[in-house]
């Protein structure tokens, strides 16, 4: 008989991170919405690299913030909007231009599977308040307007048919249909974004309908939870866990509760002692930004490094894609997903269902970096920075014999008093980071 939670902090605090979430390691985040039509933001900074002050909000690299970026009345997005659409063209005027005429959810789900992702998180309502599902609480949704399809329902079915878990993102504390003063500073975000009981009830009801309609494996709340209904949070969480036994939530509930903590680009702290998740776009934006071409997106080597460094530190990587309004995924984003999937086909055994190793990352000389994961008593050693066809690497404090997960590589091991000395032949830079398995090496 599965545990039944009650609407108290004591009860929901007994919830533990489900094994499936820790084992999945890699998910696909999807930001798709009205903002995908203008698809414009300046290429400025990574979140966390600079203060989120007025300069940030008037030069916001997040294309999904287009509504606010024109609402502030100045800056590159505002000027772009006036020049391209004119000052009488409202944000909602983009809705009929979002047709999703080429959208094939099954194709998306197949691509995510080929990328090696094990879960997906879709925006069901972002800050603009537009719902990507047929909500009972507003007609400002994608069944009534724009695509005129149940995007959340169709994608959930397709994702699950490919054997991946489906998660839902909800903008809990910002909804520009309820409070749309321009945001110039962080406090505007979290302080008075939606200061009414009406919104608190609305958001509670929508979060519950999302749970009841789609049974999401991840409930990814963003920004925060309305202060007026913080007392209702344990009831929501208990209901969610009782309806979705494998359910898991992030840490953006006013700091009151989390299953896993989150980092976003450079913002947030990761602590390898507890489960965390890194989310970011392939460029500086989550929503599709026409300003970001292939050269502005993260390189494949850096993407593989990000996955390995995150997983070896007890994190999951939630990598975002920003689809075009017609429902296709930009080629430069698809290319990176497929390259990651190819790497994971060879090295995934050292990623999926692993846990944090007692070994910490370290440099092994000549610019070589080592990262570690563990699976019971077996140790996986990721070696980054090889350059030559033949390499010798010392892995400090590791004993035993090693085999490579890439069968086209040849490895010889020698035990020394400092650790395991490995000779690796057959390397080429297309292999990026390689992985050794050391039986009983943990
Ligand atoms: C996934 C992205 N989330 C953004 C909001 N993120 C933040 O406010 C950053 C943040 C809030 N609490 C945190 C806790 C840890 C790390 C980052 C944050 C949204 O504003 C973006 O549009 C996008 O949806």
* Binned strand content: 15-25%
Total count of strands: 17
Q: Roughly how many Å is the radius of gyration?
A: 23 Å
> Count the helices. How many?
12
CATH architecture of the largest domain: Alpha-Beta Barrel
Give helix % range: 25-40%
Q: Would you give the CATH topology of the largest domain?
A: TIM Barrel
What is the element layout, followed by pairings?
Blueprint (H helix, E strand, L loop, with lengths): L8 H4 L6 H6 L1 E5 L23 H4 L8 H6 L4 H9 L20 H10 L4 E7 L25 H11 L3 E7 L14 H5 L6 H18 L3 E5 L10 H11 L4 E2 L11 E4 L11 E5 L19 H13 L2 E7 L9 H17 L7 E2 L5 E2 L5 E7 L2 E7 L5 E7 L5 E3 L5 E6 L3 E7 L8 E5 L4
Parallel strand pairs: 1-2, 1-8, 2-3, 3-4, 4-5, 6-7, 7-8
Antiparallel strand pairs: 9-11, 10-11, 11-12, 12-17, 13-16, 14-17, 15-16
Helix pairs in contact: 6-7, 6-12, 9-10
Bound molecules: the ligand C[C@@H]1N[C@H](CNC(=O)Cc2c[nH]c3ccccc23)[C@@H](O)[C@H](O)[C@@H]1O.
Account of the protein in words:
This protein starts with 8 loop residues before the first helix and ends with a strand. The chain is built from twelve helices and 17 strands. The chain is globular. It has an eight-stranded parallel sheet. Strands 9, 10, 11, 12, 14 and 17 form a six-stranded antiparallel sheet that branches. Strands 13-16-15 form a three-stranded antiparallel sheet, with no helix packed on it. Helices cover 26% and strands 20% of the residues. Bound molecules: the ligand C[C@@H]1N[C@H](CNC(=O)Cc2c[nH]c3ccccc23)[C@@H](O)[C@H](O)[C@@H]1O. Residues 62, 64-65, 222-223, 252, 262-264, 267-268, 279, 286 line the site of ligand ZX6.
